[in-house]
Write a structure and sequence with these properties.
Elements: E1 18-28, H1 34-43, E2 56-64, E3 68-77, H2 87-91, E4 96-102, H3 106-122, E5 128-134, H4 146-156, E6 159-162, H5 171-181, E7 189-190, E8 204-205
Parallel strand pairs: 1-3, 1-4, 2-8, 4-5, 5-6
Antiparallel strand pairs: 1-7, 2-3
The structure holds guanosine-5'-triphosphate and magnesium ion.
Catalytic activity: GTP + H2O = GDP + phosphate + H(+)
Family: Belongs to the small GTPase superfamily. Rab family.
Pfam family, one: Ras
């Protein structure tokens, strides 16, 4: 892509006028921190007593790259097993996914691997998948090794980061890494102003780019 001489401003201010829009879905076992990661990314907040998601929640957030503004349409799914059958509705057509586990919970890592398998079988074949090992602030209770998750991610072509929605560690970074990896082709490209895009009415929206 042509560099128009603008400085890179991760999650920052004004970029060039190219706008790309991508559907991103969060998947993972209940209570691993999916909603908390989204809340941190979109609003910069963290709630100790975050309520369990019912069905799914929709939010948007924008990331600025060198000469492109990437708008994420984020579907935060409910991790409780009874909502599993709804998941294909949210990952179908998604260009990106963040599969989340809790580094203090081995079962949630096993569940994350199942989500990755399901995405590899049934989602868009070009989907960009990131694996996020959340709750790194609880490292003293860790049961999932960093190296194991990293090795698994390399074997499966996933982006991998350990995150903390509580301290904000690597939260913007994981979305930024996805934004960089996504192909900026004609289908994702929107011409002109970010505010002219059409979307379903979200419960909450926020943009980091002026
Ligand atoms: N210590 C710590 N707690 C976290 C972190 N992220 C989330 N939590 C807590 O974990 C609990 C569950 O977080 P949620 O964001 O609701 O988890 P979820 O994956 O969206 O759960 P479902 O909506 O049921 O699928 C909440 O009490 C959060 O405050 C983190 O990074 N560190
Ligand atoms: Mg949730």
């Amino acid at each position: 892509m042509a560099n128009r001489g603008m400085a890179s401003r991760p999650n920052g201010q004004v970029a060039g006028n190219k706008m790309c829009q991508f559907k991103l879905v969060l998947l993972g076992e209940s209570a691993v921190g999916k909603s908390s990661l989204v809340l941190r990314f979109v609003k910069g907040q963290f709630h100790e007593f975050q309520e369990s998601t019912i069905g799914a929640a929709f939010l948007t957030q924008t990331v600025c790259l060198e000469d492109t503004t990437v708008k994420f349409e984020i579907w935060d799914t409910a991790g409780q097993e009874r909502y599993h059958s709804l998941a294909p509705m949210y990952y179908r057509g998604a260009q990106a996914a963040i599969v989340v586990y809790d580094i203090t919970n081995q079962d949630s890592f096993a569940r994350a691997k199942n989500w990755v398998k399901e995405l590899q079988r049934q989602a868009n074949p070009n989907i960009v998948i990131a694996l996020a090992g959340n709750k790194t602030d609880l490292a003293n209770q860790r049961t999932v090794d960093f190296e194991e998750a990293q090795g698994y991610s390399e074997d499966n072509g996933l982006l991998f980061m350990e995150t903390s929605a509580k301290t904000a560690m690597n939260v913007n970074d994981v979305f930024l890494a996805i934004a960089k990896k996504l192909p900026k082709n004609d289908q994702s490209m929107q011409s002109g102003n970010a505010n002219l895009t059409v979307e379903p009415p979200p419960p909450s929206r926020s943009q980091c780019c002026a």
